[in-house]
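Q: Please design a sequence for this.
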């Protein structure tokens, strides 16, 4: 039983010394993009492209561009070479899906990343509370174990140190 008491005390000491960390996406820059000037430049470019293309305005611009291209090709005004139907149109349809999906996916990724950060913050707060509860439980168990080993009995919540925790 002496080993289990020592193990409990070591675990309790570790729980008390534990420092909680909240890790957000901003804290992972060095690990994801690397460090140094080139990594910072690449990150800045990637973020600007993601912000630019990850908006509904980018989607609207691409849709307007494609609809404008179709109207221009169908009108024949100012054309030197006209896209032959249906090959240009079929290529257009396949590219249209990809071009519309790209900004939509980027917008979704931005939303999901923001949601993941909020969820991470909420999970962190919950885990802090659970850690405090578990630390208190370990303290109570340690007092009960010492009491059992010494032959004493602890009958009241005050003797267990529960005056702050039991209403």
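A: Design:
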């Amino acid at each position: 039983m002496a080993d289990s008491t020592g193990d409990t005390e070591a675990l309790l000491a570790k729980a008390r010394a534990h420092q909680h960390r909240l890790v957000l996406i901003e804290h992972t820059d060095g690990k994801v993009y690397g460090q140094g000037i080139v990594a910072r430049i690449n990150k800045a470019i990637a973020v600007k492209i993601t912000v630019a293309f990850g908006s509904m305005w980018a989607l609207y611009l691409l849709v307007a561009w494609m609809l404008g291209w179709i109207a221009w090709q169908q009108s024949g005004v100012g054309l030197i070479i006209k896209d032959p139907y249906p090959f240009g149109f079929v290529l257009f349809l396949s590219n249209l899906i990809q071009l519309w999906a790209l900004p939509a996916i980027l917008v979704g990724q931005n939303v999901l990343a923001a949601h993941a950060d909020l969820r991470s913050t909420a999970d962190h707060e919950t885990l802090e509370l659970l850690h405090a509860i578990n630390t208190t439980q370990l303290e109570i168990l340690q007092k009960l174990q010492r009491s059992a080993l010494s032959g004493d009995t602890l009958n009241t919540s005050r003797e267990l140190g529960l005056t702050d925790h039991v209403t």
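Q: Thanks. Anything notable?
A: Residues 2-160 form one domain. The radius of gyration is 31 Å.
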